[in-house]
Amino acid sequence: MEDLNLKDKVAIITGGAGVLCSEIARKLASNGVKTAIIDYKEERAAELAAVIERGTGSRSIGICASVLDKKSLTAAKDEINRALGSIDILINGAGGNSPEATTGVEQMSSKEDEDLSGTFFGLKIEGFDRVFELNFKGTLLPTMVFASDMTRRKCGAIVNISSMNSFRPLTKIPAYSAAKASVNNFTQWLAVHFAPAGVRVNAIAPGFIITDQNRFLLTDEKNGSLTARGKKVIANTPMGRFATPDEMAGTVLFLISGWAKFITGIVIPVDGGFSAYSGV
Ligand code: NAD
To answer: Which of 17, 108, 224, 269 has its C-alpha lying 20 to 30 A from 210's C-alpha?
Structure first.
């Protein structure tokens, strides 16, 4: 069997200062990968890179850029090529939801005088724009800028971070669900397009991990206990708990490694069985 085959490869992790992707960066670095952490939180990216380099001995740099700004990504690529060399791996991790694209209620009621502000009719189109921009364009644009190193050398791996609600939409978050579904579709499209150029393109679909972007939906801000929605998530997860960032990192590591060298165009759910369970 092939080994992981990752020593001294160069990886970019967008959204790398976040909860999930910082763990992915750490896991890659502890397997000998040189990492470039791209985030618009400049200080956090730089601090994390320093901690990773100290802790793992693998070179790591933090770079301030926005996944929605081609100019800043092109400047980042120059810096990464100078500091670390040609790019082998891209993890498209920046993404998230917006409260403006989230309904207050899960379903409309049957009342004629229902207050519509918490329903579909109260959603803000600006919220939809923001969520589609970040999740879809924020995957597309970094791929356009960074993947040319891989196609030129006929070797490389891209992993997009989707979500398990891309398979079946969750209530309340229509923009996020649809935007992540578009990431799955793009993953398949690009996998076909890049296959002759030796670049594999896959995605993971994480289940629920508590982070800043979903804490307001899953836990009570005042006392940290689970909301009714949080309890529902656990009840519908056959393995009975939230996921940990480390569990996402393991699957990403597999997908970029030699162990997955004949895998392209797939989306792996890492969700404790949530997407397999009908609830009955
Ligand atoms: P997070 O908010 O901790 O991390 C996201 C990071 O992206 C942040 O550091 C943020 O600064 C950065 N970012 C946002 N906009 C950016 C931009 N324009 N340019 C550069 N960086 C930008 O969230 P997370 O939960 O770690 O999410 C990581 C990925 O996992 C996202 O794509 C998210 O949609 C996906 N995901 C998360 C969960 C979950 O339960 N947390 C579930 C499924 C999928």
So the answer is: 108
